[in-house]
Design a protein that fits this description.
Layout lengths: L1 H79 L4 H82 L4 H14 L4 E5 L2 E2 L8 H9 L12 E3 L3
Parallel strand pairs: 1-3
Antiparallel strand pairs: 1-2
Helix pairs in contact: 1-2
Length: 232
């Protein structure tokens, strides 16, 4: 009977197609995992760089405060030596501006220190997330490598089994079978569901379904052209 043979041919062709499809998708899936890991690693690098930049900014700010205080001391000393009212007022104006700059710079440094403390506190969490991302990727890579090997082995075994089964196809229908496979691949065959083609849902006549049940003839769906068989 043709039904058991066509069932097995369809099963093997779908198995090979699905295995090869997953094998071909492997590099794209791996690239997506790599991109996810790289993005998390960048988050960590950026966090460390920004923290380093903020700390450097604090040092710069403190140096500027020191320089302004030195300038202030110079102005205050100069003020003591002045006698003309106009010069005194001008120097007092410089002193006031310098004090304002010092106060502003001190506020900015204090704000930066608070920001550094906050970023420093968050860094261990970012490092932990990145470490987990690396571990997850290593686990994925190991599992993917093992699965890829299994898929290749399964596809190779199914390909050998398919050749054995296709050798059993009656010569009178082999040409039609080969043409269908060339056109539709694994979807060249379709089981019936009830008394309809499972691929296109078009119903079979009672006579055609009866012929399929006997399994003596190679019958194709009158609508989509798939080779039909009765499922087990």
């Amino acid at each position: 009977m043709l039904n058991p043979l066509l069932r097995e041919l369809h099963r093997l062709r779908k198995l090979i197609r699905d295995a090869q499809g997953e094998i071909e998708r492997g590099p794209r899936v791996q690239k997506a995992h790599q991109a996810k890991l790289a993005a998390q690693e960048k988050v960590l690098v950026d966090a460390k760089d920004e923290l380093k930049k903020r700390k450097a900014g604090i040092l710069t700010g403190e140096a500027q405060i020191k320089s302004l205080n030195q300038q202030l001391s110079k102005y205050e000393k100069q003020l003591n030596d002045l006698t003309a009212q106009r010069d005194i007022e001008a120097k007092q104006h410089e002193i006031a501006n310098t004090k304002a700059l010092i106060a502003k710079q001190e506020d900015e440094v204090l704000e930066a220190m608070g920001d550094v403390d906050e970023r420093t506190a968050k860094l261990p969490e970012i490092e932990a997330v990145t470490a987990k991302a690396k571990a997850d990727y290593a686990g994925y890579e190991k599992d993917a490598s093992e699965r890829l090997a299994r898929l290749r082995e399964s596809a190779a075994e199914a390909t050998k089994a398919l050749a054995v089964e296709e050798a059993k196809i009656p010569p009178g229908i082999r040409g039609q079978y080969d043409r269908l496979v060339k056109a539709h691949g694994a979807d060249a065959l379709a089981p019936t569901e009830g008394q309809s083609c499972s691929h296109c849902r078009v119903g079979l006549t009672a006579q055609h379904y009866s012929d399929l049940q006997r399994g003596q003839e190679f019958f194709c769906c009158r609508n989509c052209g798939r080779a039909l068989y009765i499922p087990a």
